[in-house]
């Protein structure tokens, strides 16, 4: 009996559902894009969307909650509703929704935008609403945010089933199944967002005195500052940022905000060898391209293995990769480090549709005795992360 077969037997004996197809069908719709048939609606919106709340939504509204608005601003909005649209509906600050359990909560936005969707999800989840309605125009196949691939499961069934079976816990399997259903149906409301912070899985996370390879440094440096706090003054972090503008911004912000001087930003991207590649700059859809187009930036790249050797790094404890679809090449440039140092891993698997199964199966062949988990960290198809650790 193979190791995989033995694992399936153990899980079945433990009462764990191992049928991906059934798990996909059972994934709950957490954020339906609809208006509830209700006269008890609580509308949640940003100030920029308030004036365009449609009549059909206001018809059933008992209250409106505005994210980021002050008390005086809410009073002014309430007067405008009464005077301009004839609606005597109270308008509150977002914080007032905390104690409400009587409302069908609907997040409204006048256009499909990644930022408002995720920020309002964050606000609602922080006050206890994991499930709610959304009412906004959601286009299919607008980049990786709304990718809709009918037949995705049937076309990749064997690979998806293999990944599902290798996941170490029920939470990871639920996240995985929900993401497959979101892609298959085109409805991002199926996405199950994990309860922990991105790159900080409860069992796979940076720890005190760790040495980290950080692939993909955001100009916002939020994850970078969290890494610095986690490793403390005894840690070391090497951040890879090939874009010259992003490199300078990250250096300045880390220097200004970091608790400890442990973070070194290097002006290279993660790759499988020393090379020059082109990054097509297109917001959330930024990716590696072979063409030097007007919108592409030439970036120097290097492998993790070369950085480890050049800096005589004695241990690597954690590798994070969010490198705009270059994860497989970056992993190929880390094979010696993976074998010799056996680090924990947090690898993005959302940039390309095949990443969801190809990257986990690639790593299973390289890291034979690792445990695998999956987390998802935004209310759209962005930020699905594969977490791995040695047993």
Give me a quick take on this structure:
This protein is 36% helix and 20% strand. The protein is an alpha/beta fold and 391 residues long. It is globular, with a radius of gyration of 23 Å.
Keywords:
391 residues, alpha/beta, seven-stranded mixed beta sheet, five-stranded parallel beta sheet, 15 helices, 16 strands
Secondary-structure topology with pairs:
Layout lengths: L2 H11 L6 H7 L14 E5 L1 H4 L4 H4 L2 E6 L4 H15 L5 E3 L10 E5 L5 H13 L6 E3 L16 H4 L1 H10 L3 H16 L25 E5 L6 H10 L4 E5 L3 H14 L5 E4 L2 E2 L4 E6 L6 E3 L6 E7 L1 H7 L7 E4 L5 H6 L2 H7 L2 E5 L6 H12 L3 E7 L7 E7 L1
Parallel strand pairs: 1-2, 1-4, 2-3, 4-5, 6-7, 6-13, 7-8, 9-12, 13-14
Antiparallel strand pairs: 10-11, 10-12, 14-16, 15-16
Helix pairs in contact: 2-9, 8-15
3D structure, described in words:
- It is built from 15 helices and 16 strands.
- It has 391 residues and is an alpha/beta fold.
- The chain has a domain at 41-135.
- The protein has a seven-stranded mixed sheet, sandwiched between helices. It has a five-stranded parallel sheet with strand order 3-2-1-4-5.
- The two termini are 21 Å apart.
- The model has no long low-confidence stretch (mean pLDDT 91).
Please report the number of helical segments. Answer: 15
- The structural class is alpha/beta
Portion in helices: 25-40%
Strand line-up across the major sheet = 8-7-6-13-14-16-15
* End-to-end gap: 21 Å
């Amino acid at each position: 009996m193979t190791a995989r077969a033995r694992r399936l037997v153990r899980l079945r004996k433990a009462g764990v559902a191992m049928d991906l197809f059934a798990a996909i069908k059972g994934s709950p719709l957490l954020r339906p894009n609809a208006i509830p048939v209700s006269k008890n609606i609580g509308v949640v919106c940003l100030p920029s969307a308030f004036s365009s709340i449609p009549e059909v939504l206001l018809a059933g509204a008992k209250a409106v909650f505005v994210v980021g608005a002050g008390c005086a601003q809410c009073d002014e909005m309430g007067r405008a509703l009464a005077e301009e649209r004839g609606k005597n509906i109270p308008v509150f600050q977002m914080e007032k929704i905390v104690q409400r359990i009587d409302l069908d909560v609907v997040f409204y936005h006048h256009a499909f935008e990644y930022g408002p969707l995720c920020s309002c999800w964050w606000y609602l989840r922080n006050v206890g609403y994991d499930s709610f309605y959304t009412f906004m125009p959601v286009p299919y196949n607008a980049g990786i945010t709304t990718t809709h691939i009918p037949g995705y499961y049937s076309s990749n069934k064997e690979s998806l089933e293999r990944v599902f079976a290798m996941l170490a816990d029920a939470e990871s399997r639920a996240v995985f199944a929900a993401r497959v259903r979101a892609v298959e149906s085109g409805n991002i409301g199926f996405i199950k967002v994990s309860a922990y912070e991105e790159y900080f899985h409860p069992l796979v996370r940076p720890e005190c005195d760790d040495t980290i390879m950080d692939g993909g440094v955001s100009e916002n440096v939020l994850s970078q500052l969290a890494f610095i706090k986690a490793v403390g003054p005894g840690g070391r972090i090497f951040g890879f940022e090939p874009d010259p503008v992003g490199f300078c911004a990250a250096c300045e912000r880390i220097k200004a905000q970091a608790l400890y001087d442990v973070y070194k930003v290097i002006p290279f991207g993660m790759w499988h060898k020393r090379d020059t590649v082109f990054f097509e700059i297109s917001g959330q859809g930024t990716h590696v391209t072979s063409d030097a187009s007007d919108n592409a930036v030439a970036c120097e790249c290097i492998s993790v293995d070369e950085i480890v050797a050049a800096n005589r790094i004695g241990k690597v404890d954690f590798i994070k990769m969010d490198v705009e679809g270059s994860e497989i090449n970056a992993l190929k440039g880390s094979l010696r480090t993976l074998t010799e140092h056996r680090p924990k891993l947090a690898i993005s698997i959302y940039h390309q549709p095949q990443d969801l199964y190809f990257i986990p199966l690639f790593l299973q062949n390289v890291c034979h005795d690792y445990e695998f988990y999956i987390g998802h960290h935004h209310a759209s198809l962005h930020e699905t992360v594969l977490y791995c650790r040695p047993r």
